[in-house]
TrEMBL record:
InterPro entries: Chondroitin_lyas (IPR008929), Hepar_II_III_C (IPR012480), HepII_N (IPR032518), Ig-like_fold (IPR013783), Oligosacch_lyase (IPR012364). GO terms for molecular function: lyase activity. It is found in: Cell envelope. It comes from Litoreibacter ponti. Pfam families: DUF4962 (PF16332), Hepar_II_III_C (PF07940). Residues 507-701 form the Heparinase II/III-like C-terminal domain. Residues 61-434 form the Heparinase II N-terminal domain. GO terms for cellular component: cell envelope. This is Heparinase II/III-like protein.
């Protein structure tokens, strides 16, 4: 990255004289693909914050700079046009809100003075509505003007550190300091200083070495950060000396060795972060020579990650790289704050990071707050984002939380992974079937502090109660020390009282990612029903799976229709052959095939779905998903694949699947449960420990199904799930036809109060009418259009 400093923004009146457009070379302005950053804003999407976020595809020259013009007139006349230049990146957030109204924009490449060096781009238009959240970003020249450049800079400034030290001396329980000190600081005084990891035997990756070193590198953070914080807060010279021992040892490790990013990025991220905290908090305790040693190690490691993010992964062009995007928050922000104005590159990298988080973030969702990779990877991504956002807020006064995405995103785990569910949602999840991670709860409490939403605090309280004793599990201890998190949160935000989610709407549509979640009586386990369905424009990319038009169901304190399998490790046989595949979902197969879920990112991004309808109609909620493109990825003969879902009286489900094809195809209707089911000719029943469900195939235009079930994980290495429960899959196979219409009744119930839903059908004429009544004599009808030739 080759930025020009100081960055100047020209108004039209002071802008450099542009060369006549006709003398300038054409601008390279290619069409944006699914995997690329998009041209935005434009008339096809609503602007949700003011000022809007501008982005475009970069030209091929990495050193190029841009000039952006914005006007209320598409001719860009003098007096009505703002000019911003020179911009070193292909995305930009202005430093002031725009007046409500209609606007036009375009861009060109430019020289150091801001004069265009190419023809202008196509003109795009947008509207700024009145009342939008105002979220400008301070310009590069002003961004750090009020920052305290003394150390420490991460979390506490020297002034806040002095006050915090006074507060905990007066009251050791202040911000839970006493628990942090006793549990997360003092023990590291007795632990042997960690030596440099040896890496993999013969440099061949093995899961046990990966996990052990992963945890060891995380413990390196705990040792350095906590000893440094503990020593500085208390003034304990011995503790500061011990923190320096840990830090100087880590600084001696080979930045290009076993803990380099190119060897194993998760190890490298942790070492990088440990050095950043140590360099920042111990800066004034180090000799000049020691400071140079640590700074050189930190710079070398940060440069490797920055080069990967910016020059190799190119997340400003291809933003769908989970680890690279996460590393912006996890590595670049803390490391560059620690190094700012002590190494020239740090300012460029920090500006890139802040502008990425302020403009492009999050590539996995939009202002609805969804996260396409699922709630577990929302947890991971948000955990590091929260850390980075808090650091940026305390150091530079920039509040990322004002952006609409951050105001809404707490709803995503709240609705898609209730505190009493385990396997009733989508995406990779390393908890191996345990209840939601503690960190999801801590994240939700953070967003309670940001938004004042007491339902998020309720979620935190429930997860904390349910997960007591899991703090040392790999998926917790290998990532976070909650005593440190507790102290920081109490200091920075304080308590938001819990409120019951009982008043929240049952339905939440995360439209941008194609997820719908239904939560009925989430606060009452004996009556709770969770239903999640997805049909996503993100397809099966990254930690998403081949699960468009799939659903998951939990009820009455127990998972019912589950996502099958375990996320034992990325690229394991379980991951690639089962869990990512459609056959592990509550979905359909066509001619035995599901949706593309392989490693080709372009194909994965094309295997998409769409939630076309999501409506609360009073006595029922109606959803429709269109997964045609996802199934066409492996079955090009398919012309339509729809799934309609009716959630009736907050009680039972009617599911209608529609498949049209150019040649006859068979359909397998799949449903996964934790144990075998009782099967009839066209019925199935599952009985769990607290709840169960029964289902019935009410009508099939192509003919009756054949039902069977299989317990296990075909094509998966048994050693990967040794000792873990094995689930069962129901297969209902329907005869070949060019047109399928399959209507299914699914009734969840508590074992304390089993229920029946009675049904009959009338299939005379051009429709099949399905009638339902329950014990309270409430009636409901679903009409399925039919034909008289299914083309067998």
């Amino acid at each position: 990255m080759n930025s020009l400093r100081p960055l100047r923004f020209f108004s039209l009146q002071e802008s450099p004289r542009a060369m006549p457009t006709g003398t300038l070379p054409a601008l390279d302005e290619p069409k944006a693909g699914r995997l690329n950053i998009q041209y935005a804003p434009d008339a096809s999407c609503d602007v949700v914050e003011n000022p809007p976020r501008f982005s475009w595809l970069p030209v091929i020259e990495a050193e190029a700079h841009y000039v952006l013009r914005v006007s209320t007139d598409p001719e860009f006349p003098k007096g009505k046009t703002q000019l911003f230049a020179p911009l070193p990146l292909n995305f930009f957030t202005p430093d002031a809100a725009l007046a409500p109204g209609g606007y036009h924009w375009c861009y060109a490449t430019c020289d150091a003075s801001g004069a265009p060096t190419s023809a202008w781009s196509s003109v795009r238009s947008f509207i700024v509505a009145d009342g939008l959240p105002e979220t400008p970003l301070a310009s590069r020249s002003e961004r750090y003007a009020k920052a305290d450049m003394a150390h420490p800079r991460l979390w506490l400034s020297p002034k806040l550190l002095k006050q915090f030290s006074k507060d905990v001396t007066k009251d050791p329980g202040h911000c839970a300091w006493d628990t942090f000190y006793e549990t997360s600081v003092a023990p590291w005084m007795e632990r042997d200083v960690m030596t440099e990891p040896a890496g993999y035997p013969n440099h061949e990756r093995t899961a046990p070495i990966w996990r052990a070193t992963y945890i060891a590198c995380q413990e390196l953070i705990y040792a350095i950060r906590h000893l440094a914080v503990g020593g500085k807060v208390t003034g304990d010279a011995a503790m500061i000396a011990r923190a320096k021992e840990w830090l100087l040892e880590a600084a001696s490790w080979n930045p290009a060795g076993a803990t380099s990013r190119s060897y194993t990025d998760e190890w490298a991220f942790r070492v990088n972060l440990a050095l950043a905290w140590g360099y920042d908090w111990l800066h004034d305790e180090l000799t000049g020579e020691e400071r140079d040693t640590v700074r050189a190690a930190l710079l070398a490691r940060t440069r490797e990650t920055a080069d990967h993010i910016i020059k190799h992964a190119n997340i400003h062009l291809f933003p769908f790289d989970s680890h690279a995007v996460r590393a912006v928050s996890a590595v670049l922000v803390p490391s560059c704050i620690a190094l700012l104005d002590e190494e020239d590159e740090a300012r460029d990298w920090l500006d890139y990071s802040i502008e990425f988080l302020s403009t492009v973030y999050s590539p996995w969702g939009d202002s609805d707050g969804g996260w396409a990779e699922g709630p577990h990877y929302w947890m991971t991504g948000m955990a590091y984002l929260i850390d980075a956002a808090n650091m940026i807020r305390s150091f530079a006064g920039i509040d990322l939380y004002k952006r609409p995405f951050f105001q809404a995103t707490g709803d995503f785990p709240l609705y898609t992974k209730a505190p009493d569910t385990r396997r009733a949602t989508f995406g990779d999840d390393s908890t191996m079937g345990d209840l939601p991670c503690l960190k999801i709860g801590y994240n939700l409490r953070q967003f309670a502090g940001v938004t004042g939403n007491g339902a998020y605090t309720w979620y935190y309280d429930e997860v904390k109660r349910n997960d007591a004793g899991t703090e040392m599990e790999f998926y917790n201890w290998g990532w976070w020390d909650f005593n440190f998190d507790e102290m920081v949160y109490q200091h920075d935000f304080g308590t938001v009282e819990a409120t019951s989610p009982s008043e929240l709407p049952v339905m939440r549509w995360f439209k941008g990612i194609g997820w719908v979640a239904l939560q009925h009586k989430m606060d009452d386990p004996d009556a709770h029903i969770q239903f999640v369905m997805k049909s996503s424009p993100y397809g099966s990319i990254s930690h998403s799976h081949g699960d468009q038009n799939a659903f998951c169901l939990a009820g009455f304190g127990e998972d019912l229709a589950i996502q099958s399998g375990y996320y034992v490790a990325f690229n394991s046989t379980m991951h690639q052959n089962w869990r990512r595949q459609t056959r592990s979902k509550n979905a359909i197969l066509i001619n035995g095939k599901g949706q593309y879920a392989g490693k080709d990112k372009a194909q994965a991004m094309r295997a998409t779905g769409t939630i076309t309808t999501c409506e609360d109609r009073g006595d029922h909620i109606y959803l429709q998903g269109d997964a045609t493109e996802a199934y066409r990825s492996l079955s090009p003969e398919v012309s339509r694949v729809l799934r309609d879902v009716y959630f009736v009286n907050n009680s039972f489900f009617v599911i209608v699947d529609a498949v049209d094809a150019e040649t006859p195809v068979s359909v397998d209707w799949l449903l996964h449960a934790n144990a075998p089911m009782q099967l009839g000719a066209n019925t199935f029943r599952y009985t769990g420990e607290r709840a169960g469900f029964y289902g019935q195939f009410l009508w099939s235009e192509a003919g009756a199904p054949t039902l069977d079930q299989e317990t296990g994980f075909p094509d998966v290495d048994p050693s990967e799930y040794e000792g873990l429960p094995v689930s069962t899959c129901l297969h209902a196979t329907f005869p070949k036809a060019i047109r399928h219409r399959i209507a299914t009744l699914l009734v969840p119930y508590s074992l304390k109060a089993p229920q029946r839903v009675f049904s009959f059908l009338d299939d005379q004429g051009y429709d099949c009418d399905l009638y339902f009544t329950d014990a309270d004599e409430r009636s409901f009808k679903v009409t399925v259009p039919k034909t008289f030739d299914v083309g067998r």
